[in-house]
Amino acid sequence: MDLLLLAERENTLIGQDFLTWLWFKSEIQDGMFETPEGERFMLYMEHRISVQGGDGENVDTATVSAASGNMSEALQGLKTGKKVTRAQLKMEIDENVWQVQVKAEDFTFSGLKTPKVDMKTEEGDDPDGKFLEKIYLIEKCISLFDIVFAQFIKLRISTEWQEEVANFRSWLRSIEE
């Protein structure tokens, strides 16, 4: 296998591990995370998740899009060894809410919705202010995602990872069918 294909495969696997861990972590922490500066924020999976397992021609995918919050098919997939390949995330700080779809294979963001920017301009307002506010909100979303990913990587390369995997398996067993 050439190095480029190997690198792509490793990126996909780390992305799947991350999104799968993120689902677990957001469930057991009630979505609560914290920045290094101590700012608390919510990050959790929304009602659109794809899980996938297998290799080559034997790839099996389950996609759940449930407004009711019924994720049993995707959870069953996790119980059979599948991992999250795509997820809709929701992030909240105070009354600010972001929503974004993330792909595990390359961390592509799509459908990003930021908190609403008031487009009314008053006399004397900076003409670039609304644009800059929107850019700030996009950067904030990426920053929150990066903080949680950094927490995952730090844990993933530590000696505590095996304990985290055991906790994940215990969480899966505790979920009712």
Question: Could you walk me through the main structural features you see in this protein, from its secondary elements to its overall organization?
Answer:
- With 177 residues, the protein is an alpha+beta fold.
- The chain has one domain (3-174).
- It is 43% helix and 27% strand.
- It has four helices and six strands, in the order H-E-E-E-H-E-E-E-H-H.
- Strands 1, 2, 3, 4, 5 and 6 form a six-stranded antiparallel sheet that branches.
- A hairpin with a 6-residue loop joins strand 2 (40-53) and strand 3 (60-65).
- It is elongated, with a radius of gyration of 18 Å.
- The model has no long low-confidence stretch (mean pLDDT 86).
Q: How many β-strands, per DSSP?
A: 6
What class, by secondary structure content?
Answer: alpha+beta
Poorly predicted regions are none
Oligomer: single chain
H/E element order: HEEEHEEEHH
Mean pLDDT: 86
Which percent range describes the beta-strand content? 25-35%
Rg over CA atoms:
18 Å
Separation, N- and C-terminal Cα atoms: 40 Å
Can you tell me the number of structural domains? 1
Query: What's the story with the biggest beta sheet?
Result: 6 strands, antiparallel
